[in-house]
Design goal:
This protein has 515 residues and is an alpha+beta fold. Helix content is 22%, strand content 28%. The protein has helices at 2-21, 296-329, 341-347, 352-358, 388-402, 441-444, 487-514, and strands at residues 32-36, 50-53, 59-68, 74-85, 91-93, 107-109, 113-116, 120-129, 137-147, 165-173, 181-190, 196-204, 210-220, 229-235, 240-242, 245-247, 254-265, 280-286, 290-292, 330-334, 372-376. The radius of gyration is 56 Å and the shape is rod-shaped. The chain starts with a helix and ends with a helix. Mean pLDDT is 75; it is low at 13-29, 379-389 and 421-483.
Length: 515
């Protein structure tokens, strides 16, 4: 934002200077043009630049055509200047006001000013004289043409601008020609739009200029490829040049790798634009993987996925840790007939809700005979005693199973004769038979109540919002009463027997003391 404001302020200042100082600025930059007068038929590049091959001490003549594209006569200034490498390594020309120290001194123009009629052109000849002692390789210069209406004023206030057209002159001196191009590095940068630019930086270490074809492509870590971008650039001798290829920002972003290549004619016998016997050489260089930022929408999604995965991993590890800890601190118990979640919890001195949570039970908390549940490991002394009615029932069952009551004979009782006014009990005469009473084993057995588990438990009260689990969760019949007692019943009986012995011993001691 700050850079934008600075640019806007600079443009505003320039506009004010243009209007207030009345500078010499003309927009007719496309009114004049120049081109080689005698291009080579077998070299397309000679139509836009001068390509000459001259030995030391050789002199040749050539010419340049000046074109007037307007509907009025124009006076054009023609001049020769030395060439220079631009900041990006490309070919450039010096200013007309600078002194000529190199190839600019080799070229002599026949005329430095020419008047061109409307919609026509004029030929301006020149001679090229190569010095005797010149190093082999390529030497460059520029021929410029400038309309007199586009010449900047030499004095005045404000911004003084002038426009000119220039054409390149490439003179190759035969000898040891070296063509060598190297890729120094590949720069990757993100611009203000969010896109990424890939720039292969190359250096021409030879002594002639090269016509280079550059290519660039991006490949993601998963193999996704972008389009191949290519461009042709000239690289003059000894210059370092870079090409900036722009790639759009990927929606999902990710890790990408840039692949670049440069190809050029490596045959020393061929000159600029000459493809005869061309030996194409290609050099490649790629970057390591670099991260390309995704779009904001994709970034939000991608950040949420690792968080969800991390949460799932933590939850899984926590469950495993709880299970491992639980198996170390818990013991298993096999559910017997008549057990409920409340009775089991009471017998093991823990809360039934905790018991249900440990075993993953849900309402209505049904338990079946033979089911294995996990219980907290507690000492026997911390376990709660069973209630009195449970102990009495256990004792009654034990007595009924161990010492049944003997069978007592029953004497028959004579029935009195019916009176006249009484009706007989049956049409057949009543026969008095002696009966034998059965043993009263049923009286010794505990009262068995068949309780069915409810489909949905009832709440004891709305305010407490607690369930009542006093009834067993499975059905059991009187036949189950004669089966072996459960571990809970056996433990209760054992405790009761020990308690009775202690009580009897205390009574004996008290009686001895009284005596």
């Amino acid at each position: 934002m700050r850079k934008r404001l600075q640019k806007m302020g600079l443009l505003l200042v320039v506009a004010l200077l243009l209007f207030t100082a009345a500078p010499q600025v003309l927009a007719e930059t496309g009114s004049i043009g120049i081109a080689p007068a005698f291009p080579k038929p077998n070299n397309a590049r000679s139509r836009s630049i001068f390509i000459l091959t001259l030995k030391g001490g050789e002199v040749v003549e050539d010419g340049v055509r000046v074109y007037n594209y307007t509907s009025e006569s124009r006076t054009v200034l023609v001049d020769v200047v030395d060439s220079i490498s631009a900041t990006d390594g490309s070919f450039s020309c010096k200013q007309n006001s600078e002194n000529k120290t190199a190839v600019g001194k080799w070229i002599k123009l026949a005329a430095k000013e020419v008047t061109v009629s409307p919609k026509s052109n004029e030929l301006v000849t020149f001679t090229v004289s190569v010095p005797d002692k010149v190093a082999p390789g390529e030497h460059g210069a520029c021929i410029t043409a400038q309309d007199t209406k586009n010449v900047a004023a030499k004095s005045g206030a404000g911004v003084l601008l002038g426009f000119r057209n220039a054409i390149r002159v490439a003179i190759t001196v035969p000898g040891k020609i070296v063509k060598d191009l190297r890729i120094e590095k590949v720069d990757v940068a993100r611009n203000e739009k969010g896109n990424y630019t890939v720039s292969p930086i190359s250096k021409n270490t030879g002594n002639v200029s090269l016509d280079v074809k550059a290519r660039a492509q991006l490949k993601s870590f998963f193999g996704e490829q972008t389009e191949v971008k290519a461009a042709d650039y000239p690289v003059i001798a000894g210059a370092t040049t870079g090409w900036a290829f722009e790639f759009k920002q990927p929606f999902w972003g990710g890790f990408y790798r840039a692949y670049t290549s440069l190809s050029y004619n490596a045959n020393p016998a061929t000159g600029l634009g000459d493809q005869v016997n061309g030996e194409q050489k290609k050099i490649r260089r790629d970057t390591g993987y670099f991260f390309m930022m995704p779009k904001p929408q994709a970034l939000a999604v991608e950040l949420s996925l690792p968080l969800l995965a991390l949460g799932a991993l933590i939850s899984t590890l926590r469950r495993k840790h709880i299970r491992r800890t639980a198996y170390k601190k818990l013991e298993s118990y096999t559910v017997q007939a008549g057990d409920t979640i409340v009775s089991i919890a009471a017998a093991h001195a823990c809360k039934w809700k905790k018991l249900a949570k440990l075993n993953g039970l849900r309402p209505p908390y049904m338990l079946q005979s033979g089911q294995i549940v996990l219980l907290p490991k507690t000492a026997a002394k911390h376990r709660k005693k069973r209630s009195d009615w449970q102990e009495v029932a256990d004792d009654t069952v034990e007595k009924a199973l161990e010492t049944p009551e003997p069978v007592q004979p029953v004497t028959p009782v004579a029935q009195p004769a019916p009176q006249d006014w009484e009706l007989p009990a049956a049409t057949a005469p009543a026969q008095s038979q002696p009966t034998v009473s059965q043993p009263h084993v049923a009286l010794q057995q505990p009262r068995v109540v068949v309780i069915r588990s409810q489909a949905k438990p009832k709440r004891s009260s709305r305010k407490s919002k607690r369930y009542s689990w006093a009834s067993p969760s499975t059905e059991w019949s009187p036949l189950q009463a004669t089966q072996e007692p459960s571990p809970i019943q056996a433990a209760s009986a054992k405790r009761k027997t020990s308690t009775r012995k202690k009580t009897s011993n205390k009574r004996v001691k008290k009686s001895d003391t009284k005596r």
